[in-house]
Amino acid sequence: MTTTAHAPTLAETVAALERVYPPSWAASWDAVGLVCGDPGQPVRKVLLAVDPVAEVVEEAVQWGADLVITHHPLLLRGVTSVAATTPKGRTVHRLIGTGTALYTAHTNADTADPGVSDALAAAVGLAGPLRPLEPDPGDPDGRRGIGRVGALPAPMSLRAFAEQAAAGLPATAAGVRVSGDLDRTVRTVAVSGGAGDSLLGAARAAGVDAYLTSDLRHHPASEFAEQGGPALVDTAHFASEWPWLPDCAARLAGALADQGDTVETHVSTIVTDAWTRAFAPVPPAS
Fold it and tell me: What is the pLDDT of residue 43?
């Protein structure tokens, strides 16, 4: 006798996901949750991606996904129209027109235990136990929070760590940038997926040898380097958050299995980083 896997409804799928990443954990300014979709529609295929851009939505449609889960919100800032004359409006129309739901887990996934930065820490080679770089004051256990601090299995040079990080993350045009003596020894590292220069002070206070994050701006990074302290490793924003997607897929599948449901998941490998090419200066002819 064979049993047929039960496809959950969108409402049941969202409920399972929100048990893992409760929306109440999101920052007050964030826009997380269900963006579009009929709660009663069945969900058999789920595609996960960092950004809800047109290329990702088209991949989902062509694969036959019933639901797209992204880390970044489609409608983070208020809008007065979703007319198809705008990029976001065209995305909404394409989703609704094809019966494809969209859900966002953003800062609630950042602060979760495990969350975005746990996956980043694993991708660049840190070993446990990990602790939050900036703990969530609402977590009495002190496990949730933004960023993670951990140690390498063995000390290595900053150069070797940067090369290891680059190898463990998706390739992007920007690659990995480093500020600091490439020969300095790195044992402990703080990481934070996504834009992380607001946590430079926390990284210094953590006493780590290096801080890996994304979108470091010139002046904060320059002043940080002049004051001494951890080396800086700057990655592409997309690259630092992509490692969370397989973990999210696995946790969603597990949460659904607990209620007797099954879905097929697929992690998009489309590089949605904003920068598509980097050019090195050409040395003058001698």
Answer: 98
Beta strands in 121-242 (DSSP E): 127-135, 145-157, 176-179, 185-195, 210-214, 231-235
The hierarchical CATH code for the domain 10-109+242-267 is 3.40.1390.30
Contacts of 161 (CB under 8 A, 6+ apart): 124, 125, 152, 186, 189, 210, 233
**Annotated binding-site ranges for a divalent metal cation:** 71-72, 110, 237, 241
Q: How far apart are CA 83 and CA 47, in angstroms?
A: 25
Binding region: 71-72, 110, 237, 241
Binning pLDDT at 50, 70 and 90, where does residue 4 land? low
112-235 matches 10-109+242-267 in CATH topology: yes
Given pLDDT bands bounded at 50, 70 and 90, which one contains residue 2?
Answer: very low
Asked if residue 225 lies in contact with residue 149, where contact means CB atoms within 8 angstroms, the answer is no
Is 0.85 topped by the overall pTM? Answer: yes
Under DSSP, the state recorded for 176 is E
- Rounded to an integer, what distance in angstroms lies between the CA atom of residue 93 and that of residue 72? 18
Of 77-91, 105-119, 181-195, the one with minimum mean pLDDT is 77-91
Q: Would you tell me the crossing angle of helices 54-63 and 87-97 to the nearest 10 degrees?
A: 10
Q: Where are the domains of the chain?
A: 10-109+242-267, 112-235
Average pLDDT on 89-93 reads 97
Give the end-to-end CA distance of the chain in Å, rounded to a whole number.
78
Worst-scoring range by mean pLDDT, 1-10, 248-257, 259-268?
Answer: 1-10
Could you give the CA distance from residue 182 to residue 158 in angstroms, rounded to a whole number? 5
Q: Which CATH number fits domain 112-235: 3.20.20.30, 3.40.1390.30, 3.90.25.10, 3.20.10.10?
A: 3.40.1390.30
